[in-house]
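Lecture 7 notes: from sequence to structure.
We start with the chain below.
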Amino acid sequence: MFTVVPQHAFVVVTAAFLAALLCLSFYDSWRARSHGWTMTEEFLGECARCRLMFLVSRHETVVRCPRCSTLVQTPGRSGGGGRNKVR
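Predicted structure tokens for the same chain:
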């Protein structure tokens, strides 16, 4: 049978954690590439402070205005029924 020394268990747990982080980063980069910027899937966001209109990916959860860096409510989740959608 195998004997597990606490030092070895620490190395195994740390390696498993780092492998999980690596897999998650690969998944995130794949998701970003596969769901690229397609104009029909994007929303038009508008900043309430500086009135700048800009494209917002439908996969974004938190959006900041590129000009003034204020938080902007995500157009697809704002309760407007998707009426800001670019066609």
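Points to note: DSSP finds one helix and four strands in the chain. Residues 39-77 form one domain.
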